[in-house]
Amino acid sequence: MSYSETALDQLESGQLDDFQKSFQLALKNDTDDLLFSLAEELYSLGFTENAKEIYQQLLGKYPDEGEIKIHLAELAIDDEDDELALDYLSQINRDDPVYVQSLLVAADLYQTQELFEISEQKLLMARQLAPDEDIISFALAEFYFSTRNFNKAVNLYLSLIKRGNLAMANVNLVDRLGVSYAETGHFEQALGYLQQIKPVDLTPDTRFELAFTYFNLKDYEAAIKEFEELRDTDPQYATLYSYLSDAYVQKNENSQALKTIQEGLSVDQYNEQLWLKAANIAQMVGEDDLTLNYLKQGLAVDPDNLAIITRLSAWYIKHEDFSDVIELLEPMQETDQFDAMLAWNLATANNSLGNGKAAKHNYEIAERELQDNADFLKEAGLFFRTTGDHEQATQLFTNYLKLVPGDAEITELLDEELYNE
Description:
The protein is mainly α. It is 74% helix and 1% strand. It contains 25 helices and 2 strands. The longest helix is centred in the N-terminal third of the chain and has 14 residues, at 16-29.
């Protein structure tokens, strides 16, 4: 028995001290082939320092051996020494039999560094050099999938499946193709592939994509079934709750939608979009106080969320809490977030409290962008009529009647304004 074999036996039986002695004897006495095999075994068992020692000794004897450099590069990557890894990989010549493999290793390394363009270049170069190697097409497909370039991923996965590859490196390619189709909006094609996967083989992500596909195909019963199954097996999968509640809303099951979104908030209480959706659903079921509470909670999570601010100011207006509107919106007037809808809400609040100058200022801001909003045109026109700004009132009423030509009240008021002019 060689020293390498003895060392592995001792390692297997837990004789670590004896293993180290046999390992040193192997380094001095065993053949290079035995040592190379020992290094591979040690690396797979997690004894990376011992493997590195062997590879470094072998590299000293075979300085042009590319395969040894790849192994040392992989060990350097494990040690988070990316610079050393790239140095080893750069030493491998283009005519080396393992050059393509070195490109794949480099691509992985650059991807972990988020240097995606360089990573893609390495993979494309490898595919150009070995166009018939499925493992390279698979690596490129996985790169596009992980970087959410699903259109390119689709073509590669489809090509691999057509060549008889249903799974590679423990990855289900049918699963990947179905998800890629769903993410590109090709839901009919996605469903055709996702339905082929056995329920027991559905990962949480794939089950979500299946439910998401049913949802987008407006098969809300099937979507609810899959979302609920995902919730029951993985209740911490926060993304599902928003879509599941939407599916219930589509079926006019608003109480169940509210319960669902409340479950989601217990899982992800720092998601301001869930708070906003919870507020919208609470309003659907007539829970005004709950709506206000959810809007405030969402604003506490993200004080700059424009959608929440807009909804909250609208809630205050509906309930005639005009001072709260002003307190909420006045500090925003000089910010980039202050848009036409907020200006309208602030104008309404100031008008209701008799702050004519502030109301006029904000109606004029809102008017620049709300020329197609009939409700705004009517309200602003009535305001300017009461302040004696006949020209502005006339213009607003004229624009309003283009949208709502049958409003007899405003037609009469417009005639009066024209007469006053």
